Amino acid sequence: MELIRYWQVVWRRWWLIAALLVVVGVLSMLSYDWSPAPMYTTVFRFSVGIVPEPPVGAEYAYNTLDIWRSAEYLMDDLAAAVRGNNYARLVAQRLDESGVNLAGRFSAATEHRVLTVSITWADPEQLSRIANAAVQVLEQEAGQLVGALGDADPVLRLIEQPIVAPAGRSLGDKLDIPIRMGLALIAGVAGAFLMDYLDTTVRDGAEVEELGIAVLSQIPKE
Fold first, then answer.
1. Which pTM value belongs to this model?
2. 2-51: per-residue pLDDT in tens?
3. How many CA atoms lie within 13 A of 102 on its CB side?
4. How many domains does the chain have?
5. Both 164 and 176 in a single domain?
6. Which domain does 181 fall in, by range?
């Protein structure tokens, strides 16, 4: 019974919900960028390890499993360093091109001992140069980015070369209009219930009985 009453509330104010959907839909269509500038992306991967250097005169050997675990612990720091401004500055210096701001352009993900770095840029040729510079910085200056682990430095081996490819629309762009329409629908339904709550009109016997008044009979609309 409650579900029927909820539906009646929505049906009585359907025009409010429809109006919000139409307004938001039209504004979204007009403001949406249907022909965005082309973007390009590249991804490259490194296998990360550690080469320990035992102290002089040590009479023990490192456990290989401990080395792997240490490399995995290092991954989070290395990924954070790739996303940081210091890495962007080092890549820009090696690139040696004026006016290139790389801050916030690098994203990094980790899986076990594999570091995945991705870059998105508007110029495919320049992106290729940026990717090559980014690879060189990681290969040669990874220890400077994260600091040495005692006497052990990170060792990175490139396992997937950067390849430039066109980038599709982001998930946020694809869901922009559906999300707006969903929010408009929620706002319309909420507005319908608010208007019904503020409305003092009595429409049926059930609403009269809620006021504490006994209903003796009803005359149907037909």
1. 0.64
2. 788 888 888 888 999 999 999 999 998 888 887 777 889 999 999 887 76
3. 28
4. 2
5. no
6. 2-34+172-210
Domain end call among 153, 168, 183: 168
Tell me whether residue 107 is in a domain.
Answer: yes
Question: In terms of domains, do 123 and 199 share one?
Answer: no
Mind spelling out the 3-state secondary structure of the chain? CHHHHHHHHHHHCHHHHHHHHHHHHHHHHHHCCCCCCCEEEEEEEEEEEEECCCCCCCCCCCCHHHHHHHHHHHHHHHHHHHHCHHHHHHHHHHHCCCCCCCCCCEEEEEECCEEEEEEEECCHHHHHHHHHHHHHHHHHHHHHHHCCECCEEEEEEEEEEEEEEEECCCHHHHCHHHHHHHHHHHHHHHHHHHHHHHCCCCCCHHHHHHCCCCCCCCCCCC
Which of 141, 132, 130 shows the shortest CA–CA distance to 99? 130
Distance CA 132, CA 178 (A): 38
